Amino acid sequence: MNFKPVFIEANDLDDAWYQLLSALFEHGREYKIDEGSHAGESRLTFDFVAGFIKHPHQGPLAPYVPESGSLSPPTSHEEIEQYFANYLMDGRCAPDEEYRYGTFLVGGDYELPSNSLLMKVPNQVQWVIDHFNKKGLGQEHCYITIGYPESNLAYDIPYTNEGDRRTSPCLRGLDFRVVNNHLTTHVIYRSWDLVGGFPTNMGGFTLLNQYIASEINVEPGPLSFSCKSLHAYSHAYPYIKMRLGK
Asked: pTM of the entire structure?
């Protein structure tokens, strides 16, 4: 089988998103979705993709979309700021939420799908900050885990309506390292929507990188990422082609 792994090197967030949109139609593999979000549709996905963004803090956090034409940006600076404040840095769930990334980042209550045991998730962001400050910058211990092993068992729980389907987090980890007095952050996803998720997510992680860097008295630095299923759904193909001018 002819696998086609992809690696990009980008200057900023907008550059990364545009490169990925371009590469998806060249290297992506299309298949039908049997189960999960948009079941029954097709999805174009990379076999594996990774990237390095040198200056995510420079320029606008939201991708640029030309004003001429009918395209709307996939996100905005304001939406990214709200995502950072309300979803990444707030672990309290709404009544209809199983979890939010903030549940695992800054702590909160999480019910294990396997046995309904209520877990008190620790504040891992604060642990990262404290560990750098107490143990020094020259160590590689600071990894944040999103979810529990039991989170995967959520897919075994029967459901009738799509809104009742249990899930495990798509984001699985954030890895931190200080290089030349700059905080680097590596983002790991198991499954990732390139149009509906990547721009807002990476903007939020840029702000998280900036926040932690300020707390440990270093400069905010590059972001890297990896995913074995960064994809676009078939309903987004026209949008991508219009953005690429195809």
From this structure: 0.94
Order of strands across the sheet with 230-233?
29-32, 42-45, 230-233, 192-193
Total number of residues shown for the chain: 246
Within a domain: 89: yes
Give the total number of structural domains in the chain: 1
Cα three-residue angle 5-224-123, rounded to 5 degrees? 125
With respect to residue 202, please indicate whether it lies within any of the assigned structural domains.
Answer: yes
pLDDT tens string 80-97: 999 999 999 999 999 889
Residue pLDDT, tens place only, 180-203 = 999 999 999 999 999 999 999 999
Assess contact for 62 and 80: CB atoms under 8 A: yes
Tell me if 104 is assigned to some domain: yes
